[in-house]
Specification:
alpha+beta, elongated
Length: 133
């Protein structure tokens, strides 16, 4: 009976301690936005910040980031008929941090007297690349 009590007390203490040390699992997902610019044109296209679910950064880098850039490049080529644009993708797990980066990037283009044009989220949404790609 004594052994049962000590075991029960130890189990209660162990469970109560582990309940406080368990961390809440962070939802997977990355925020990103894209910029498409050309040396031959004064218009710079950019997307609003979007969340892509089921993506996890690997050692601080966005996996398959080239595919996200190609998605934006294809959008600019087909909808705007602009073929010589270079696309850049900015990403972060922290939306506030990415909003600061977006303001900084847009500010540089405005300072250079380039015209900024947003590609609305209704027209273009980043898609997570499949494993086959």
């Amino acid at each position: 009976m004594r052994l049962f009590r000590y075991t029960l007390v130890a189990l209660v203490v162990l469970l109560s301690c582990s309940a406080f040390t368990m961390k809440e699992k962070k939802a997977e997902g990355v925020y990103l936005f894209g910029v498409a610019a050309s040396f031959n044109d004064s218009v710079v296209y950019f997307t609003p910040i979007q969340r892509v679910d089921s993506v996890k950064l690997e050692k601080g880098f966005l996996p398959k980031r080239a595919q996200y850039a190609y998605q934006l490049k294809n959008q600019v080529e087909y909808s705007k008929n602009k073929t010589d644009y270079t696309c850049m993708i900015y990403f972060s797990e922290n939306k506030a941090k990415l909003e600061k980066e977006a303001a900084k990037v847009k500010g540089k283009y405005v300072k250079s007297k380039l015209h900024l044009e947003e590609i609305p989220a209704e027209v273009f949404v980043f898609q997570r690349p499949t494993d086959e790609e």
